[in-house]
Amino acid sequence: SELFDVARTSWREAGRPEPRLTTSFWFALDDGDGSARVQMHRHLRHYMNWLPVHLVDALAPAAGFAGTESELRAVLRQFEEIGADEVQLIPTSSDLTAVHRIAQIIA
Asked: Measured between alpha carbons, how far is 18 from 75 in angstroms, rounded to an integer?
């Protein structure tokens, strides 16, 4: 919310129209068993393989979204409430069921 406010203020002070506010984040879904965080960690180790493993391991516990569909729905509502125009969800798995689950969440 604070970063969106900074963008709005900066654009207004520069005499520009309201900015289009977008964000994105990695996601992994589970049914509350914690497997989403494991998936996220595995993805980050692969995706960020150019970084030392200890740095990726330090980042992994807080990176992206890992949780249930209802928790993700709540996070997306928060982005809507702060005025996000678009949220891009980046899957951390090649399993297409994750995309189908997201489609159900946003439908």
From this structure: 23
Listed as ranges, residues in the chain with pLDDT below 70 are none
Separation of alpha carbons 11 and 68, rounded Å = 36
30, two tokens:
């589970």
What span, in angstroms and rounded, lies between the C-alpha atoms of 27 and 4?
A: 21
Chain center to CA of 49: 20
Tell me if 91 sits within 8 A of 43, measured CB to CB.
no
pTM: 0.88
Burial of 74 (0-12, 13-18, 19+ CB in 10 A): exposed
Find, among 22, 40, 43, 19, the residue nearest to 88 by Cα.
22
Tokens of 54: 């200890």
